[in-house]
Design goal:
It is a single chain. By secondary structure, this protein is of the alpha/beta class. The chain contains three helices and 20 strands. It has helices spanning 12-30, 36-46, 111-114; strands spanning 7-8, 49-50, 55-56, 60-62, 68-70, 75-76, 80-83, 88-90, 95-96, 101-103, 105-106, 118-121, 124-126, 131-132, 137-138, 143-144, 149-150, 155-156, 164-168, 171-176. The strands form four sheets. A seven-stranded mixed sheet has the order 3-6-9-14-17-19-20, with no helix packed on it. Helix 1 runs antiparallel to helix 2. It starts with 6 loop residues before the first strand and ends in a 9-residue tail after the last strand.
């Protein structure tokens, strides 16, 4: 699965790993804002690697969690989803708006191959200092460069370079950014 080969998601080991992640997500999602120590413990147990100052506004959902690496100061707003049968690497100081979805799981284009119920996954990497606007979908195999901004509601189907504002369906480069850009995109 992690090598990008076709796999059977109903495999008992994978099913058990997803159940573990769902149980941890449920505890996280049922927690209150005043239970920060509990949330921090769950975050460290759920994800493969985490930096410091991770903030997740519940609810949050993921498939395995162990395939997700988070840098420092990563913020997930409400209702984010990460399907992580392949690795998801997120840099430092990354902001996710509400209802952002990151997919690594995908299925064959061929109907006959899809009938096998086997699937495959492609890793996603998001650089540091990235802002992903609410309602964005990041598709399998995409890399988003550091310091870029993805406009709300975008569907990111291809790599996005560093230092750009990109938006749309499909997401496309709108303009280059520099560190002097203000709040108006």
């Amino acid at each position: 699965m992690l090598s990008g080969e076709m796999y059977d998601a109903t495999d008992p080991q994978l099913t058990a790993e997803r159940r573990r992640a769902r149980d941890l997500c449920k505890i996280l999602n049922d927690s209150h804002d005043n239970e920060q120590a509990l949330r921090e413990r769950i975050i460290r147990e759920l994800f493969g690697r985490t930096g410091d100052a991770i903030w997740i506004e519940p609810p949050f959902y993921c498939d395995y969690g162990t395939n997700i690496t988070l840098g420092n100061k990563v913020f997930f707003n409400f209702n984010c989803v990460i399907l992580d049968p392949a690795s998801v690497i997120i840099g430092n100081d990354v902001l996710f708006g509400p209802v952002v979805q990151v997919y690594t799981a995908t299925h064959p284009i061929s109907a006959s191959e899809r009938r096998s119920r086997r699937e495959f996954a492609r890793p996603v990497e998001i650089g540091s200092d990235v802002w992903v606007g609410g309602g964005t979908i990041i598709c399998p195999g995409v890399n988003i460069g550091s310091r870029s901004v993805i406009g709300a509601g975008s569907v990111v189907t291809n790599d996005i370079p560093e230092d750009v504002f990109a938006a749309g369906n499909p997401c496309r480069l709108i303009r280059h950014l520099d560190d002097q850009d203000g709040s108006n995109l």
